Description:
Blueprint lengths: L8 E4 L5 H12 L3 E6 L2 H15 L3 E5 L5 H11 L4 E4 L14 H29 L2 E6 L12 H21 L4 E8 L5 H14 L3 H9 L10 H12 L10 E4 L9
Parallel strand pairs: 1-2, 1-4, 2-3, 4-5, 5-6, 6-7
Helix pairs in contact: 1-2, 1-8, 4-5, 6-7
Amino acid sequence: MDFGLNGKKALVCASSKGLGRGCAEALAGEGVDLILNARGAEALEETAKHINQTYGVDVKAVVADITSEEGRAKVLEAAGDVDILVTNAGGPPPGLWIDWDRDDFIAALDANMLTPIALMKALVPGMMERGWGRVVNITSQSVKSPIPALGLSNSARAGLTGYVAGTARQVAEKGVTINNLLPGIHATDRAISLDGGVAAKEGITIEEAKKKREATIPVRRYGTAEEFGAACAFLCSQQAAFMIGQNILHDGGGVNATL
């Protein structure tokens, strides 16, 4: 199937590894030129080189903290006009609801709600003027099924979901779609961090913690960045032009819900 993306240009945030890299590689495989962003220079440069050599697309790497105003300005200046925006940022740390204070919530909102909104406000008007655009926000399955230990993430990502629900329907007539892709647990550094926390709390090994979590997933395994990237590429495709403001789970059936 031809996704109709050859020659498009995408900004993929937090894309040196993990789910962001999976999205970047899937888009590159469809002929999309890329602006990659991450905070770590070494991993970002390695990823950019790999994608360029593997897929033959233009790749520009921008080292910056996308959650800061200075970082966003740097990335947006380098990106220029893009056809596709994939927003992504690391999730807030786990914890107990009674331990979080205002500063913790502000940091979570800055990273996982206000940063995607700022990027959309900067780039979507240009997409509307050109009559075509795609935005995919990487959020979390916790939007549909809150995770108690991840209350900061639950809150910030739910706020972004509400913003997208209204905004997506205002820009759709101009050929721009905005959708959210909700990952469950995937084999990334985030999973290692979460499993490490469980292991330390319960006095078990990380492998044992992983097996316990896998047992709660109907497919009995973690997802892969490649699978997630393929879902992202589809949401960016011409075939997904009628999908507006949707929240698509990518969780191996982990969220037990009918709707």
